[in-house]
Amino acid sequence: MTADELRNEMHAEFKDVRSDSAALRNEMTAEFKAVRADLAGLRNETAGEFKKVHAQFENIHARFERVDARFERVDAQFERVDAQFENVDAQFESIHAQFESVRAELKAVEDNLLARIKAEGETIRRHFDVMVERVNDSVKVVADGTARHTERLDDHETRIKAIEGPAG
Questions:
Q1: Within a 13 Å sphere around the CA of 143, how many CA atoms are in the beta-carbon half?
Q2: Residue 131 and residue 108: Cα distance in Å, rounded?
């Protein structure tokens, strides 16, 4: 049962109780007026009239017992509502605890991922540094080879010019 359904049910029950209470109040007011009239007449009437008054008091007593029973039902309803609210509070506390648990798990996952990313970044940087050294070494070998070939070509050029002579 949702909180709205519970509220609607309670609203309807309280409306019935208020209506019953108003009707009972009106009945009681009328009965008290009758009792007052009977008591005024009692002063003038004989002892037999006391029995009628006693019967009317019994009727009023029975009505009060019905009112007490109604109030006991209302109290029981309040106790059920209180129990339901305690249950709802417990459920909210449970949900809050679950959210806290999920939040902690997500934080742990985030921390783990950040650590892994950092470690992987360091590994990539070391690998990159090694590769840069290798490329630099390769470039140096190529540059040294190119310089040596250029020098040999220059030597060949000089020899060819010496062989061909100053013809040109």
A1: 6
A2: 34
Rounded to whole angstroms, what are the CA distances from 103 to 80, 100, 106, 111? 34, 5, 5, 12
DSSP SS3 for 24: helix
Mean pLDDT of 139-143: 91
Q: How far is CA 13 from the centre of its chain?
A: 30
- Tokens encoding 46: 């004989």
Query: What's at 56, amino acid-wise?
Result: Q
Q: Are 63 and 28 in contact (CB under 8 A)?
A: yes
Mean pLDDT for all residues in the chain = 87
* Cβ atoms of residues 49 and 42 within 8 Å: yes
Q: Cβ(70)–Cβ(17) under 8 Å?
A: yes
Whether pLDDT at 18 is above 90: no
